[in-house]
Design goal:
One of its GO terms (molecular function) is actin binding. The chain has 307 residues and is α+β, with helices and mostly antiparallel strands. It contains 10 helices and 9 strands. The protein has one domain: Yope Regulator, Chain: A (2-Layer Sandwich), CATH 3.30.1460. Helix content is 40%, strand content 16%. A hairpin with a 2-residue loop joins β4 and β5. The termini are far apart.
Length: 307
């Protein structure tokens, strides 16, 4: 008989590109991240189910009684993909908080976040540079995403955003990525550098309203300092970086949907104007009927006059 408190959760990760290193089918630090995030409620099954990179056995009877803590833990279970893929990023940023570099780590670290796509980390003792090659399949999405990312540079000049992260934008990959393969740096949407990643959420509502239709090559480049990963800021920074491409893609799709809605409304208003310009055929026929007369013959006219 099946136990209603036991749940198996299998995760299939994106296909890693050649420049990304997986250990046992998982990014480095993933096992430790899972144990730290879920504690006793999760058991890692080895080997995982066929076709998956990871299978977790969840014991729901061990969930904490506190409602708020239980909800937070379940949200973390729903975010298991981010926990696994963001594990290397979390390890590197933890060392950044102590102003050191993780041992036995390459100068350039590639992390997978989409099928056959990765973003890059350049860890240093005082900062970590994060580079996102932004790729979009649809040409319209590419145009909108390019404008969206360029506004990271322009939006800081807007009144009320003086404290927003400073940004730079360029056509070509930054010099820090020298040595990376051409396929890894192939992008169709720019190169933007900004500072305080923990305050990114304040920029997005303004950027959506400031879209300018232009087309260029684009990659996202962020510089993370120790102050951005201190204490509780670490989780927020890891989340912002791990989901950055999805967040940009979300706002691009919303902008595209908004413009489509405006265009449909405009077409409807033009159709209504054309319909109002058409003559009303029923009224025309009725008016013509009231003005019509019947020609009488000579015999009928004499009969009418005699009567």
């Amino acid at each position: 008989m099946k136990n209603p408190h036991i749940l198996l959760l299998s995760v299939s990760l994106p296909t890693p590109p050649l420049e990304t290193v997986f250990l046992g089918g998982l990014p480095f630090g993933a096992i430790e991240a899972i144990k730290s995030a879920y504690g006793v409620i999760v058991q890692i099954l080895d080997p995982p189910r066929d076709g998956f990179n990871l299978t977790l056995k969840l014991n729901l009877s061990k969930l904490p009684p506190d409602e708020e803590y239980r909800h937070a833990l379940l949200v973390k279970v729903a975010s298991v993909r981010e926990v696994v893929l963001g594990a290397p990023l979390r390890v590197i940023l933890k060392y950044l908080a102590s102003r050191t570099i993780a041992p036995d780590i390459d100068r350039l670290v590639a992390l997978v976040h989409r099928p056959n796509e990765s973003f890059f980390l350049l860890p240093q003792a005082e900062k970590v540079t994060v580079v996102f090659p932004m790729r979009f399949k649809d040409s319209i999405d590419t145009v909108l995403a390019t404008s969206f990312l360029q506004e990271f540079v322009e939006s800081r000049r807007t009144a009320g955003l003086n404290n927003a992260p400073p940004c730079l934008w360029s056509h070509s990959p930054p010099l820090e990525l020298k040595g990376a393969t051409d396929d890894a740096l192939s992008a169709n949407a720019g190169f933007v550098t900004f500072g305080n990643i923990t305050r990114l959420e304040f920029l997005f509502p303004f950027l959506v309203m400031l879209l300018i239709l232009q087309t260029r090559l684009c990659v996202m480049n962020a510089v993370i300092f120790p102050r951005h990963v201190e204490g509780k800021k670490l989780d927020r920074t890891v989340w912002n970086l791990s989901t950055f491409h999805a967040y940009v893609n979300y706002h691009v799709k919303c902008s595209e949907g908004f413009m489509h809605t405006r265009m449909r409304r405009r077409v409807e208003s033009l159709i209504q104007a054309l319909n109002r310009a058409k003559p009303d055929q029923e009224k025309t026929k009725k008016a013509a009927h009231t003005r019509s007369f019947k020609r009488l013959s000579l015999k009928e006219s004499r009969t009418n006059s005699n009567s």
